Amino acid sequence: MLAKRGLSGIDLNKKKVDDPKRIPEGLGLVVGSVFLTCIIIFELFNPHTEIIPQFHTALLAICFMLLLGFADDVLGFRWRSKIFLSAIAALPLAAFYTGATAIMVPMPFRGLLGNYIELGLFYKIYVGAFTVFCTNGINIYAGINGLEVSQSIIVGLAIIVHAYIQIYRGYFLEENRFALWMATPFVLCSFGLLKFNKFPSRVFVGDSYTYMAGMTLGTIATLGHFSKTVMLFFMPQLINFALSLPQLLGLPKFLHRLVPEEFRTCPRHRLPKYDEEKGKLVATRNLTLINAVLYLFGPRSEQSVLHLLSFFHVIWCAVSFGIRFWLASLLYEKVR
User: Fold this and answer.
1) How many structural domains compose the chain?
2) Residue 300, beta-bridge partner list
3) One domain, residues 146 and 173
4) What is the span of the domain harbouring residue 137?
5) What does the alpha-carbon distance between residue 329 and residue 293 come to, in Å, rounded to a whole number?
6) For residue 291, is it within any domain?
7) How far apart are the C-alpha atoms of 319 and 104, rounded to whole Å?
8) Do 278 and 322 fall within a single domain?
9) Rounded to whole angstroms, what are the CA distances from 261 to 78, 251, 265?
10) What distance in Å separates the CA atoms of residue 175 and residue 172, rounded to the nearest whole number?
11) N or C: which end of the chain has fewer CB within 10 A?
12) What is the Cα–Cα distance from 92 to 163, expressed in whole angstroms?
């Protein structure tokens, strides 16, 4: 139906043919609708009514972001507009957040700052900024079949593992049950999408999925009160964002003579180049983590690049658990 309405595109990392097949776009709308329906049905049978307000807050923010993501698929907003719109979609989460707004100070600095710092309204601003990063971090870390979905699944699985660990340790039972109840259907719905989006892709996920996925993961982290841990899981997205920032912001005009033309503007698709003879992706001057990996490891097939990036992400998530439960014990007297 989406393809018949003209919402389709061409896979740019494939061999060029005279009449390329157009692939349906915006399939995140389908996955997002199924995911939200799962959560609503789950609420009907959930005896823990004390966390229903958290579900409602999450559903409102995710539904808002799904709508804006699909509008982006149809209208094609500029990236600056995407940041602004994702900030608007984060407003329900910031507005209805009722948890603690204080942060614990690491032991070496408590003599100077005290045990806690109350942030108040600034914490809600942080909540908005955090969810904006999650949505746009996934959105710009893209360009090969299956990458947007696989990275979201990896972070979702890491959240599930973290929640089980915390429940086993007896900490924050309510928040971690909420994380499990939100992350599990999200991961399973995403696996369904990955079946069709993996190489060679039969559908494109669109901004509707990347926005929805980022908001879902950000909402779980915020309402589950472990946003710093989830930020560790987002390290590949953070690296890609840091690499992309000079190109996204553009360079001052006085530097234009000193840098290649590719760095002066930000194209809509900052993809690697496809070598038709070898059937491999080759690094370009676009500033992304995908191109950095191709530059370091040489030309590779699209599937190989995805496997390499996913392997790095999984290994990093394992390292993140070490940071979360071992390194943090050096800064706090009791890691919860």
Assistant:
1) 2
2) 281
3) yes
4) 30-241+307-330
5) 33
6) yes
7) 23
8) no
9) 20, 11, 7
10) 5
11) N
12) 24
Q: Residues 200-245: pLDDT tens digits?
A: 899 999 999 999 999 999 999 999 888 889 999 999 999 999 988 8
Whether residue 112 lies inside any domain: the answer is yes
Q: Are 31 and 2 spatial neighbours (Cβ–Cβ below 8 Å)?
A: no
The Cα–Cα gap between 144 and 13 comes to 7
Residue 97 and residue 114 in one domain: yes
Structure tokens at 191: 């696996």
Helices 147-169 and 206-223, interaxial angle, to 10°?
A: 20
pLDDT, one tens digit per residue, over 36-84 is 999 999 888 887 777 788 888 899 999 999 999 999 988 888 777 878 8
- Predicted model pTM: 0.90
Written in H, E and C, the secondary structure of the chain is CCCCCCCEECCCCCCCCCCCCCEECCCHHHHHHHHHHHHHHHHHHCCCHHHHHHHHHHHHHHHHHHHHHHHHHHHCCCHHHHHHHHHHHCHHHHHHCCCCCEEECCHHHHHHHCCEEECCHHHHHHHHHHHHHHHHHHHHCCCCCCHHHHHHHHHHHHHHHHHHHHHHHCCCHHHHHHHHHHHHHHHHHHHHHHHHHCCCCCCCCHHHHHHHHHHHHHHHHHHCCCHHHHHHHCHHHHHHHHHHHHHHHCCCHHHHHHCCHHHCCCCCCCCCEEECCCCEEECCCCCCHHHHHHHHHCCECHHHHHHHHHHHHHHHHHHHHHHHHCHHHHCCCCCC
On whether residue 11 sits in a domain, the answer given is no
Angle at CA of residue 240, ends 238 and 241, nearest 5°: 65
Rounded to 5°, angle at Cα 188 from 187 and 189: 95
214 lies in the same domain as 251: no
